[in-house]
Amino acid sequence: MVGVEVTWESPVTAVGGKHAAKLARLPGIATVGDLVGTYPKQHVQKGSLSQLDELTAGDLVSFVGEVASARQFSYQDKRTRRTAYRLEVRVRAEDGALLMTYFDKAKHVADWRLQTELPVGRVGVFSGRLKWFRDEWQLTNPASRLYEEGDDAVDTMPDLIPIYSSIGGITTWQLEETIELALTLLDRVPEVLPPAVVEARDLLPTRQALRWIHRPDTRAQKAMAEKRLKYDEAFVAQCVLARRRLLVEGTVANPRPGRPGGLLDAFDARLPFALTEGQVRVGEEIAEELGRDHPMQRLLQGEVGSGKTVVSLRAMLQVVDSGGQAALLAPTEVLAQQHQRSVERMLGELAQGGMLGGSEHGTRVALLTGSLGAAARRTALAAAAGGEAGIVIGTHALLEDRVQFADLGLVVVDEQHRFGVEQRSALGAKAGTPPHVLVMTATPIPRTVAMTVFGDLDTSTLFELPAGRGEVQTTVVPIKARAAWLERAWQRVREEVAAGHQAYVVASRIDPGDDEVAAAEPVDATGEAPRVLYAVDELAPELAEGALAGLRVEVLHGRMLPEDKDRVMSAFAAGEVDVLVSTTVIEVGVDVPNATVMVILDADRFGVSQLHQLRGRIGRGGHAGLCLLVTGADPLGPSMERLLAVAGTRDGFELSRIDMEQRREGNVLGTQQSGGRAGGLKLLSVLRDEAVIADAREAAFEVLRADPALVGSPDLAAAVRRLEDSEQAEYLEMT
Ligand code: ADP
Ligand code: MG
Prior knowledge:
By secondary structure, the chain is α/β, with parallel strands linked by helices. Helix 5 (about 170-185) packs antiparallel against helix 7 (about 205-215) and helix 9 (about 265-270) runs antiparallel to helix 11.
């Protein structure tokens, strides 16, 4: 046979074998590289059944045995009402026997055909999770591989059996076989690391690492393989980021150094408070960078209420003082409106540029949102295009084609994770030269995540809150344990209002029939009737007539008309509303210093970071705040742990870590991930592998500084290109 060369980039079909064609049709497996890059989700020790005594339900068991008996039963499926089949196979090993139960559900049809052919006497490997049922151990729908007569695979089977996630009807054994074949046929495996890096860190050669990640003889081999491949992942990702970083350093931007005696100075002079130390420090960093002829790319993180908005406004004014414009992009209409109000309030006469009574340095603030009327929109568009508006605030509407700027010098993105990369670059494209970019986030990002995901941004952090911020006490109110406690919560609200303060009441649903939310309701494992969740539209009138009778109660949620939202928000800000009953539309950035108490109903429905953000709305005016996390969840259940964590600390970094650990890592910033994990990362954990990431980052910069086009490292160049091209590169870029 004439050998066809099988390379890393060859299509999977080049491998041949029985399953390659089927594999090639799966998403995510196109090349031989993709195939051998599909790692086992775990390895199980080839066990004997004598270990059953030491095992518990849920443990993974794999063993070799012989079919002792097979019986088929039919039954009526409760859900589909169709006849379904169950096959019970007793498998005997040298030291015991175990029952395998196969159900004929649609997704096991492929297996089923195989299993009905399980004749007594057949030998195979069985692997599945142990379950205690009808007084005996069994495996349900185990993965299995049967041997032909005279097959020597039983003897050559390794002690550590790789188990792959079964994808698209391909079993773990079929995948193993095809990967094994591919590794044998591959005549060259790309080496992305420079030899010096490999040597200094005592890493395995790639080919060896690939063999051992699939088929290690020992756990130690597997660990060594992981160490090597993890490093590769970190290194390639860091190369992508370093390249982007070096590209920005080589890009020219208009310097916006500001002007003594201009708007910024006038603003500082009328600021009613002194900037915090952090605001001064970060302000200086930003001021200096805006004056350079490379675009600033900075991430500003700080707790809700730490004073980011003031910092960004000062940056905007510096740009206006330099003859440019600034755009402030907010994630929601409510926030855009609020930004406009607070920016105009802070600027006072400085926002009346060109108007009677306005300051001589003054500029104008324009608001552009989707709900503007035609006339207002025309005015705003003209002010942006003509340059009269030094500051343009808006939502996604700012990204539309017809929005033009005279000279866009700075883009400020508030609450980064709601904006994707396309949006940011769409705005950037509206500037003649690349604008400076400031991204603000109130969700603290652990250092390692910042290094991986925001590796091309510089980071500034506001650690302290402005002086005079009140403490916020957070208390969990488990109404399942004590229903009367809810009454006590409403009483606290009445007390605060009587003392001249205001309150938020937050619910997870808008109306009781909210399907979208209802669908997310987990089936209660205890078999209890699902809880009825509080809904804004129902709760508000109930409170107004009952527990909070006599107080001014208003409703705010995302399905209201924008002008209604604005009206309610303004009334609440002006103190004309005592209690705002809302969904999480108030989550980000809303600032009403007089609000001191927040009652969050069904608090277990919210994520850790979300709860933390929500309570950041209170205790803003120097008054002590109280946040009540009301929950009907099981007082001993897992969601209670989360709530107690939120109640126990105000350290945003700590909470964000807890949050990320609970969610899938690939979902760290709330993006949809097709491949499941961030930036093509399979082994690397952006939370746990800090040392590897930091080391790989240094190594990446070193390599790229010496050889920016990676001419001398073709394998690395190809891997970097692949990651850049992959849709996951968007994730890395997302800011
Ligand atoms: P963030 O955007 O980080 O949530 P803001 O900039 O909105 O925070 O500030 C929150 C509140 O604190 C605002 O009312 C703001 O005017 C006020 N503030 C900001 N900086 C200071 C400061 N240095 N001293 C006192 N109050 C401040
Ligand atoms: Mg803010």
